[in-house]
Design brief:
This protein is an all-alpha fold and 677 residues long. It has helices at 58-62, 113-139, 141-170, 174-209, 217-240, 242-249, 254-267, 270-286, 291-315, 326-345, 348-353, 369-398, 400-403, 413-447, 449-452, 455-481, 483-490, 496-511, 513-529, 532-555, 561-587, 593-624, 629-653, 657-669.
């Protein structure tokens, strides 16, 4: 049957036709009345990349190209089968006592009518499993999202403590650049593995494999074996070449370079455990288990904080790279790596609890990995381009201190990373948590578009553009208004002059929060639709803009070099956000763009009503206490209260119902409102 996307206004056999115009009479719009539904990270679609590409059969059709297997199905327990669990079909004569049924005989070619009926029932059961997963996601969307967000919140708070102590240990000069560059280098490798191989390929294929007659165990075992082998090889090569990577990717010199290389040899094995963590997390997410994956980074931060406390107790602050001993290097870098190891190991008992068992199996030929490889290759190329741009930016930022006149304080890579840590907290807590929750639903909505039309996918795209914005836009204005007190108060281990050059970076990054979040949604959108080439050219676009600004920063005044890099972050993400929204509107045949823009404008005005007095209050408090450390905390506290009051007044005046819907599940979870409300 040829697939033709359902046009706006068309109905499906079991759904009424929709009005072509969003938000027609009596239509409350895609934002649910009970508040946002926020879940987790998951699968991609069963369709090949490219515009108008036809289905290549999906998981069910691929069964006909696989060796016949015994057909099983499960008792109606109301639970989603674990990855690798055989699907068992209840017999008509099954006893009522609930005893397990015997599996049926294998289905072969030239089967009888009863065998054909068995095959049909198997396909029906597999579709039922998919529907059950989707129903469970929708039912538990708010709970799962809040569970992830709560883990993210605790982790980010501890991460902030970690960053504060790290600033006290290494300051914000050359020793700080050396450690941050060495400790960040494994992340560049991880993103290539995690985004190109794990998140974009492993999890989608695990989710599809769950529909197979054997629950996908053989397929998943082979995929995991190949993935783990690749991870081990990459980790060994990167660790062996850590010194070369530091020389090539940074502009460190002399003692700073030597210290950075020493850090890199200890930090680079993090690649192995970061990637294992991503693999285990993908397995848990595919099964619908999100709590452990969201809370595991807490363990990492606790271990790292312990190492920094020990360091400060033994040696105090050491900002000069020439005085570091091997014991200092191992204490700081070793505790950072040990935290990643611990974060990975805590997931193993959870995997065992959900019933996952792994048997190493080698060999990929004949298991439908051809399309997987093509999509992975395009995704990997896109990520290589993104990481090459990121490494170039890090290289440019690390050279600012060497270019500046001696004795002047300028922002370098450590200042950039300190601002990025503050930027990442609201992004991960609000934007990433919500989008991760929407991803699996978007993928499944796209998979069933042939039968159900584009309505569900269109609704999810609208929510992906609006739900994060309800929290992201106000927080962005708050960060811009109180940037100086926030930096000075949180990074109390750096000097006032260093805080003054870091605060503008935070303000610029805050201005990029919304487009940055939309670009994250763009990547998930392309993964869900398996649009590898689309994701590739979009990544080329944003990287080209940011590299252009980095090129300019390298040639202009180093006092403003990192600020120019941050301007590139705003420009690149804003350009791609606009391009993506227009692209998504075309693919979804409308996304209610006018309503999206109207929501953004109202949120911006309401946020401005709170940010303006908050900025003035912060300035007055800091000036009244002669820029003391205590005044920074006072400015943050009073400024935040003033902002909230002004913003809520704006929400009331502009009737931003979406914000109330955004808060309702959180307040309900805290028992501050009744469930019936």
């Amino acid at each position: 049957m040829t697939y033709r996307p359902r046009r706006a206004g068309e109905g499906s056999p079991d759904k009424p036709a929709r009005s072509r115009r969003w938000g027609g009479p009596g239509d409350a719009g895609p934002v649910p009345e009970q508040g946002p539904e926020l879940p987790q990270e998951t699968s991609a679609a069963d369709y090949s990349p490219g515009h108008g590409s036809s289905s290549h059969g999906g998981a069910i059709d691929r069964l006909s190209r696989r060796p016949e297997r015994a057909v099983h199905s499960a008792e109606d327990t109301g639970r989603i089968p674990a990855v690798g669990a055989p699907i068992r079909r209840p017999r008509a004569d099954a006893p009522a006592s609930g005893q397990p049924d015997e599996p049926t005989q294998p289905v072969g070619r030239g089967t009888s009518n009863s065998d054909e009926t068995s095959t049909e029932m198997t396909m029906t059961n597999m579709a039922a499993v998919d529907d059950e997963i989707d129903a469970a996601d929708r039912k538990n969307l708010g709970r799962n999202s809040l569970l992830m967000a709560s883990g993210t919140l605790v982790s980010r708070v501890l991460g902030m403590v970690n960053a504060m102590l790290l600033a006290k240990v290494v300051g914000q000069a050359l020793a700080a650049d050396a450690f941050r560059l060495a400790n960040t280098l494994p992340n560049y490798i991880l993103v290539l593995l995690s985004g190109g191989i794990l998140n974009a390929v492993l999890l989608p294929q695990i989710t599809k494999a769950m529909k197979r007659p054997d629950g996908g165990k053989d397929f998943v075992d082979r995929l995991l074996t190949a993935t783990l082998t690749l991870i081990l090889v990459v980790a060994v090569l990167c660790t062996a070449g850590a010194g070369v990577l530091m020389r090539v990717t940074t502009q460190l010199e002399g003692a700073g370079l030597h210290l950075g290389i020493a850090f890199a040899y200890i930090c680079m094995p993090q690649v192995l455990f970061y990637a294992l963590f991503a693999v285990l997390g993908n397995l848990l997410n595919a099964r619908g288990s999100f709590g452990a994956f969201g809370w595991a980074p807490v363990v990492n931060n606790v271990v790292a904080i312990g190492g920094e406390i020990v360091f400060l107790g033994l040696w105090g602050q050491q900002a000069d790279p020439s005085v570091w001993s091997s014991q200092m290097v191992w204490t700081l870098a070793g505790s950072a790596t040990l935290g990643i190891v611990a974060q990975t190991l805590v997931l193993l008992p959870v995997l065992k609890k959900i019933g996952f068992r792994y048997t190493p199996r080698f060999g990929l030929r004949g298991y439908g990995f051809g399309q997987v490889g093509r999509f992975a290759a395009l995704t990997f190329i896109a990520l290589c381009i993104a990481q090459a741009g990121g490494i170039y930016i890090a290289n440019v930022a690390s050279g600012m201190m060497y270019r500046a006149p001696q004795g002047t304080t300028v922002a370098g890579y450590a200042a950039y990373q300190n601002a990025m840590t503050l930027f990442q907290m609201p992004y991960s807590l609000i934007g990433f948590s919500i989008l991760t929750a929407l991803f699996p639903q978007l993928a499944r909505a796209w998979q069933r578009r042939a039968s159900a039309g584009l309505g569900d996918a269109r609704d999810l795209v609208y929510r992906g553009l609006t739900l994060p914005a309800v929290g992201i836009i106000p927080v962005a204005f708050l960060l811009m208004a109180l940037a100086r007190p926030i930096v000075r108060g949180i990074y109390w281990g750096i000097s006032p002059a260093q805080a003054s050059v870091t605060a503008p970076l935070l303000m610029l990054m805050a201005a990029a929060l919304l487009p940055f979040t939309i670009v994250t949604f763009q990547q998930q959108f392309c993964f869900a639709l398996e649009r590898g080439f689309t994701n590739l050219w979009m990544q080329c676009l944003v990287t080209a803009v940011q590299v252009g600004f980095g090129f300019a920063a390298q040639r202009l005044d180093p006092a403003h070099g990192v600020e120019i890099i941050c301007l590139g972050m705003i420009a690149g993400n804003s350009v791609l956000a606009i391009v993506f929204v227009l692209y998504a509107r075309r693919e979804m045949e409308g996304i209610g763009l006018a309503r999206v823009i109207w929501l953004y404008l109202r949120l911006a005005v309401a946020s401005l009503l709170g940010a303006t007095p908050a900025y003035l209050v912060g300035r007055v408090v800091v000036a009244s206490q002669a820029d003391s450390l205590i005044s920074q905390f006072g400015a943050m506290a009073l400024g935040a209260v003033v902002f909230i009051i002004g913003f809520l007044i704006g929400v009331k005046l502009l009737a931003i119902d979406e914000f109330r819907a955004f808060l309702r599940p959180i307040l309900r979870r805290l028992h501050l409102v009744r469930s019936a409300e």
